[in-house]
């Protein structure tokens, strides 16, 4: 439960403020985070004073140049904005992302099904019928932490993390879902893999495909379709934004 009734202003060095809206991972608290971000974007007076802002599960960190901006005054303005922004935000983008749950793409799928006393197809059904909310981006560039995992799939991290997790891996652990945008070590349980690149430096204005506030829908595809999409996504003329228009990847 959230035990903070009002947002708190916390100093983060001499060039940033953190506005904290709660003390737990909670959809209501996160809606306040998104509400504040929405208000911040619309506040031109404040926006011109800051370098960037980073939302997380329950807070937003706002960065500024202390040589150019009065930090105390900015902190007061941010706190006032947070107290009045509420949790009214525009609906996040709906992203339908293809995932292959077959064979080598989901090395932990069978074990998860066994540990949760579920059929493998039931695990896949739970993943594809749920809507996952993006709480924050962290750990790696473009790595989204997703809420909305069904309680029946709540499972601990691996006791022994892998040294290598393939890029695009869809994973669950500790009541959350995530996607690895890069090959890296990791201790989450791997259920499938998407052929869609989650981070592209060619999109300099927004290299990460997924952003905080987005709503993610997983769409099951077979291995042959995965291979087709993998090739398509690697073409230099592939339009990444086309994913915003596609709901059926079969």
CATH architecture of the largest domain: Beta Barrel
How many domains, as an integer? 2
Report the helical percentage: 25-40%
Q: Note the main sheet.
A: 7 strands, mixed
**Uncertain regions: pLDDT < 50 for 5+ in a row?**
none
The N- to C-terminal Cα distance equals 41 Å
For this structure, the CATH topology of the largest domain is Cyclophilin
Order of helices and strands: EEHHEEHEHHEEEEEEEEH
Coarse structural class: alpha+beta
The CATH class designation of the largest domain is: Mainly Beta
Classify the beta-strand content into a percent band: 25-35%
What does this structure look like?
The chain has six helices and 13 strands. The chain is an alpha+beta fold and 250 residues long. Strand 9 (169-173) and strand 10 form a beta hairpin. The N and C termini lie far apart (41 Å). The strands form three sheets. A seven-stranded mixed sheet has the order 5-13-6-7-10-9-12. Strands 1-2-4-3 form a four-stranded antiparallel sheet, with helices on one face. Strands 8-11 form a two-stranded antiparallel sheet. Helices cover 25% and strands 26% of the residues. GO terms for molecular function: ATP binding; hydrolase activity.
What is the element layout, followed by pairings?
Layout: E1 8-11, E2 16-20, H1 27-42, H2 44-47, E3 50-55, E4 59-64, H3 71-85, E5 94-100, H4 109-115, H5 120-129, E6 132-137, E7 144-147, E8 162-165, E9 169-173, E10 176-179, E11 184-186, E12 189-193, E13 215-221, H6 223-233
Parallel strand pairs: 5-13
Antiparallel strand pairs: 1-2, 2-4, 3-4, 6-7, 6-13, 7-10, 8-11, 9-10, 9-12
């Amino acid at each position: 439960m959230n035990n903070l009734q009002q947002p708190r202003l916390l100093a983060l060095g001499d060039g940033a403020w953190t506005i904290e809206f709660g003390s737990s991972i909670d959809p209501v608290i996160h809606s306040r985070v998104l509400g504040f971000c929405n208000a911040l974007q619309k506040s031109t007076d404040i926006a011109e004073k800051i370098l960037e802002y980073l939302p997380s599960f329950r807070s937003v960190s706002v960065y500024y140049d202390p040589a150019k901006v009065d930090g105390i005054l900015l902190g007061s303005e941010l706190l006032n904005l947070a107290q009045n922004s509420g949790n009214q935000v525009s609906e996040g983008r709906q992203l339908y992302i293809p995932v292959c749950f077959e064979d080598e793409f989901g090395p932990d799928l069978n074990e998860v099904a066994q540990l949760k006393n579920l059929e493998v197809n039931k695990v896949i059904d739970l993943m594809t019928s749920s809507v996952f909310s993006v709480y924050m981006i962290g750990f790696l560039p473009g790595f989204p932490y997703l809420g909305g995992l069904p309680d029946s799939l709540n499972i601990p991290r691996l006791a022994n993390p892998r040294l290598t997790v393939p890029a695009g891996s869809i994973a669950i652990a500790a009541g959350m879902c995530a996607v690895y945008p890069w090959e890296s070590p990791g201790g989450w349980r791997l259920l499938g893999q998407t052929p869609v690149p989650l981070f592209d430096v060619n999109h300099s204005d927004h290299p990460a495909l997924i952003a905080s506030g987005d709503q993610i829908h997983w769409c099951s595809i077979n291995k042959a379709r995965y291979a087709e999409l993998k090739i398509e996504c690697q073409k230099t003329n592939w339009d990444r934004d086309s994913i915003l228009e596609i709901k059926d990847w079969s």
